[in-house]
Amino acid sequence: MKKSSKSKSNYKFIVFVAALTLPISAVFDTSTIFLNTTTWYIGAIVVVCIVFIGALFDMLGMAAAAARETPFHAMASKRVFGARRAIAIVRNAEKVSSVCSDVIGDIAGVLSGAGALAVSVQLLATIHVGGWRDEAVKIAITAVITSLTVGGKAIGKTVAIHSPTPIILFAARLWETVSFVDRGAQRRKK
């Protein structure tokens, strides 16, 4: 009976993640529409930010999977800010890792490639290159962004595996701070 309840919960989470992917993808995809209308150097900054967001969330997902609860229990006993939230993150590592790495990290990876193409089109419109050089510029820019994406994710995962505790504590403190600010705004409305 317990196993059936657990698998039903897993199916609900899978449906939730699939449904969550749609609006997040739409929000990120809006940035590629923006990239088609802006100058290439602003677009390049946006693409690098998308790459950074993807690598950051991939690192957070890996840290959640690699972290252990024990240090956070010790911190919670000393009333360290964010320690209880960190325990919740570690206890839900499968879900946190799925949302951070699979949803946000993967969407950012796909959109950084689309953004790289938009940036290359804007750059080519600026420098007026034709023929085979046109295609070479597109390929070079896309290759650089792809290598930044893969390299950034690799660095983030390496850091996350070797030191998950400070990463999870930082994320938990950030989450607690945002929750605290949100609670304060809700109290003022009442």
Structure description:
With 190 residues, the protein is mainly α. The chain has one domain. The protein is 91% helix and 0% strand. The model has no long low-confidence stretch (mean pLDDT 87).
Keywords:
190 residues; mainly alpha; 91% helix; 0% strand; elongated
Task: Briefly characterize the structure.
The protein has 190 residues and is an all-alpha fold. The chain is 91% helix and 0% strand.
How many discrete structural domains?
1
Report the order of strands and helices: HHHHHHH
Number of helical regions: 7
Please state the overall shape, judged from the principal axes of the Cα atoms.
Answer: elongated
Which structural class do the helices and strands define?
mainly alpha
β content, as a range?
under 5%
Tell me roughly what share of residues is in helical segments. Answer: over 70%
